[in-house]
Structure to design on (430 residues):
């Protein structure tokens, strides 16, 4: 069996159900690249409940490269966990591994957990119904500056909908986008596109450390 | 302190953090009307960890009526929990109580949990980014049949976006809308609006019992 276990947004978000699965599993691969902030906390909580010898923290290359074949081979014989921060299938690419597992006849199971998508919307206090399409604001690359988030915002504003922006993270380079960085990028997009939808008086809500004690 | 604790989608979705708060709280009001299916399971899990004498299961009238004043009075002096299935602020009206508490100078805290919004999107395997506005398909009343969900679907389809439909629940009448009921209603909306977006060959994904063992 191949389990996809969501760990939630802070180390104590682990659910009773997730804990059951983690305790019983033969091997646990922890996605170590979707988030930065909680790795150390999370290691402490895991070590309290789970035999450390069976836990591997793995990087993007491992989970998005050819190593998934190794995981499938193991999961055909034993109980293997891929553990992911947040809910396992929000904004991650692990769905590919699930599809390959199901194709190979290996049963899979998902343990849900708080995701930034619902927890973030919940934390704003706004109606979930009134959110349109979401988008990620990414760090500009040297040769590339996308105004895509601006277009999504424009389209949602026309419809009277809120927009949820995810902020980029580059775990390999230990870079996390801050709210002020994202705002600066949005203002720069406004300069390019010039539709007059963002100025310094625009109302936005910045969210940080959602799910942590100083949310 | 007033805590809003998410219980998740099945009884074992309770997190370590939620359990800490529930154990320490002086009184726990459980929202008993947002969902039907898990109340009995949930009572069993709660009774394992929490002193039953301090737990009250309350109905919509209690949490949406004037009793919030009583809750605020208690929360000014002691640790009070409002426990809700799913994440506390997705599609519920408890945000009102939080705002009143903050106005009265009573500190509040949210414990996030899996919500049908993110768990449902996750369970489809589709990209969370590609969902537009969501809507609820409600049971038609005698004199009232709304085609609002159809309009939302139409608008999202025009823009190449998926639509997430919540299905109605009437806990007081023990009625849960099934996927086939929702599909019938969508086909009826098509008859009214006649934009040719839904026919028996349309692709949809029906989700049920998300978060439970037979998801």
């Amino acid at each position: 069996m191949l389990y996809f276990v969501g760990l939630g947004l802070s180390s104590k978000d682990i659910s009773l159900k997730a804990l059951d699965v983690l305790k019983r599993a033969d091997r646990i691969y922890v996605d170590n690249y979707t988030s930065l902030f909680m790795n150390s906390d999370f290691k402490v909580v895991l070590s309290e409940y789970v035999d450390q010898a069976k836990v591997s923290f793995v990087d993007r290359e491992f989970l998005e490269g050819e190593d998934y074949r190794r995981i499938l081979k193991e999961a055909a014989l034993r109980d293997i966990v891929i553990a992911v921060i947040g809910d396992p299938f929000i904004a991650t690419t692990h769905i590919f591994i699930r599809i390959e597992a199901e194709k190979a006849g290996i049963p899979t199971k998902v343990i849900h957990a708080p995701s930034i998508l619902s927890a973030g919307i919940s934390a704003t206090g706004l109606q979930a119904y009134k959110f349109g399409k979401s988008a990620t604001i990414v760090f500009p690359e040297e040769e590339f500056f996308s105004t895509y988030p601006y277009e999504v915002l424009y389209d949602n504003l026309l419809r009277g909908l809120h927009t949820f922006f995810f902020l980029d993270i580059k775990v390999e380079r230990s870079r996390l986008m801050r709210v002020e960085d994202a705002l600066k990028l949005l203002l720069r997009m406004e300069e390019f596109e010039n539709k007059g939808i963002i100025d310094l008086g625009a109302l936005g809500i910045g969210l940080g450390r959602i799910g942590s004690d100083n949310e």
